[in-house]
Design brief:
Length: about 450
């Protein structure tokens, strides 16, 4: 079956969904035009839609499935736990075990609290920072996405008409519903601009509770913070008593000790999610013990309430523990080797085809962008339609030849993949280049 097909089961389900769900979906990231592919089942690195079409899954639920689908150890943990206890208004040993594993691995985490989404992990980190410092403002970098807390739904994808001067970006609401007060309390930093960012931090430092960033920015084509930029941020935040928050919801899959272990910068607080839940909903906020005291209801420093019916729920804790125990150094090396093979292969194919492109990412994350120049900031990304049209055509080819990827150039690998799966995606990218060229001819 060729996508799109108005007679497909996915098309029919989307029409049905639009009657009861705004826009036909609860989750915008899953949408494709003219309709999304509805999943029926999945195993390993392959996902099958309701029309019976099987594809290699290079989305992996927006990076949360690091072992792919139906991982045997994770399924066994979920099955076993479900027979004992689905949920209760009591803590369980599994919560302690997953916390112990993460505290042992993550340099910036002495203690941790679980929640139910990466957005909540970020939200509680920012709330803890405000409570600990007594300051109101938050700083983030232009072009970075940190979930849906109001403070960081700011300047995610601003347009040239609204983004302000390069040395001092404006705070631009990413969605309706963000108050002007919130915009005023969020300072936007120019990513990888050492001089301008340092000047802004010195200027506003006494009012800043936290700087939140991910050293690999997912919404910026996997652009990396330079070592010099990270070192400056860490130095200046310490000078002003500002807490450094790493949002590793996305990037934690890049190293055994998280991305902070790879870049060798230790933040004060860390937000986690995605892979630590083994495929079930999860979030977490961890950090230095003295900061985490704001959550300690037995302490005189207790000031931040953090309730949640499903916080630390035993199903997620069991699945997350089974997932993370399999993420050994060898597992990370396997993913890095496959990622390097894919990046090197894409560069070779696109160079030989004389197609201007940038291949980005590290470890298990691969980016393919039809742009001529390397980019290190949000404003370096081209705003023209050419790149979008080219990848749109390539994406359509991939969908129709056994590859499920994001629609914007991000490929996410899983431990379930083999060299043959990488060979397959490389072959299909090569075969799809004529369609990409034709889209802009």
């Amino acid at each position: 079956m060729t996508f799109p097909d108005p007679s497909s089961k996915s098309a029919a389900l989307f029409e049905r969904a639009k009657r009861v769900l705004p826009g036909g979906s609860t989750r915008t990231a899953s949408l494709l035009s003219p309709y999304p592919l509805y999943a029926a089942r999945a195993q390993g690195c392959r996902i099958t839609d309701v029309d019976g079409v099987e594809r290699i899954d290079f989305v992996n639920n927006m990076s949360s499935l690091i072992h792919g689908h139906a991982n045997p150890a994770v399924l066994e943990a979920i099955t076993s736990q479900s027979r004992r206890l689905l949920a209760a208004a009591c803590p369980t040993e599994q919560e302690i075990e997953l916390a112990e594993l993460l505290v042992e691995r993550v340099p910036g985490v002495d203690q941790i609290r679980f929640s139910n989404s990466g957005s909540e992990g970020v939200l509680m980190a920012l709330r803890a920072a405000r409570a600990f410092t007594g300051r109101p403002r938050i700083a983030k970098v232009e072009g970075a996405y940190h979930g849906n807390p109001d403070s960081v739904e700011v300047s995610i994808a601003p347009s040239p008409g609204s983004w302000g001067p390069a040395h001092a970006p404006a705070s631009v609401a990413a969605t309706a519903g963000i108050s002007q007060n919130t915009l005023d309390e969020t300072l936007v930093l120019p990513f990888n601009d050492l001089q301008s960012s340092e000047a802004l931090l010195h200027e506003h430092g006494d009012a800043l509770a936290a700087v939140v960033l991910d050293p690999v920015v997912s919404r910026m084509g996997l652009a990396k913070a330079t070592p010099e930029y990270l070192a400056m941020i860490r130095r200046v935040t310490r000078e002003h008593g500002i807490l450094l928050v790493f949002d590793e919801v996305f990037s934690f899959r890049l190293g055994y000790h998280g991305l902070q272990g790879e870049v060798r910068v230790t933040p004060d607080l860390t937000a986690l999610g995605k892979i630590i839940g083994g495929g079930l909903p999860v979030g977490a906020t961890g950090g230095r013990a003295d900061i985490m005291e704001v959550f300690n209801h037995t302490s005189a420093k207790y000031s931040v309430e953090h309730g949640g019916t499903y916080n630390g729920n035993p199903m997620t804790m069991a699945a997350g523990l089974a997932c993370m125990r399999q993420m050994t150094p060898d597992a990370y090396r396997h993913l890095a080797r496959l990622g390097d093979k894919m990046r090197d292969g894409l560069r070779k194919i696109l160079t030989e085809a004389d197609v201007p492109s940038q291949i980005t990412g590290q470890g298990s994350l691969v980016g393919l962008y039809f742009v001529e120049k390397p980019f290190a900031t949000y404003r370096d990304l081209p705003a023209d339609n050419r790149a979008r049209k080219m990848f749109g055509a390539l994406h359509r080819h991939l969908l129709n030849h056994g590859i499920y990827s994001t629609s914007y150039g991000l490929f996410v690998l899983s431990t379930a993949m083999t060299d043959a799966d990488i060979d397959k995606v490389l072959a299909e990218v090569k075969a799809g280049l004529p369609a990409a060229r034709k889209a802009v001819a």
